[in-house]
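User: Hi! Is it possible to get a structure for several chains at once, not just one? Here's what I have:
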Amino acid sequence: MPVVSYSSISVSPPLIGVACQSSSFTLKLALASKAFSLCLLDRSRIHAIERLATRSGSQVEDKLTDAGLDYEKGSKLDVPIIKVAEATLECQLHSRIRLGDHVMLVGLVKACNASDKFRDFWDFKRYRAVLYTGWRDGMTTYDAARRAI
Ligand SMILES: Cc1cc2nc3c(=O)[nH]c(=O)nc-3n(C[C@H](O)[C@H](O)[C@H](O)COP(=O)(O)O)c2cc1C
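Assistant: Yes, the chains can be modeled jointly so their relative placement is included. Here is the combined structure:
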């Protein structure tokens, strides 16, 4: 599922937190498999991201394929890694914390990868991040940027 509520929590050990709605199918899968991945996609993938956001994985056989995203198994963990992702993190479930109406999944990063658009920093001329500005008539990012897609 697309997530905006994620953050680095610790550098050593490398921990990442993701806030998940209790109802999300992704949360169920991550708890069952004790692992999850984070994949950063370029803005050009926005239509696939919209599809991921508007259809629950509980309704389809294979949600990533349904959204037109090919994936492969992670290098260290049995998690789906989206092939066109610009950066990926493979996380082993470290812990979970119920916080209000969300569950914070804390992942221990076991492997990571980035495309050549990242060296010491992102080259934002080549990697165009999705800018989440709220949900209205479709998804995210600035109108001007949407016209440029
Ligand atoms: C830009 C964007 C950011 C989102 N961020 C989150 C998030 O941080 N946590 C969350 O639980 N849902 C978030 N959602 C909603 C889920 O992506 C959506 O409910 C999804 O359909 C859940 O799919 P699933 O049931 O297959 O897990 C976000 C949606 C969008 C469009």
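The beta strands are 6-10, 15-21, 35-40, 71-73, 80-82, 87-99, 102-114. The chain has a mean pLDDT of 91.

User: Great, thank you!
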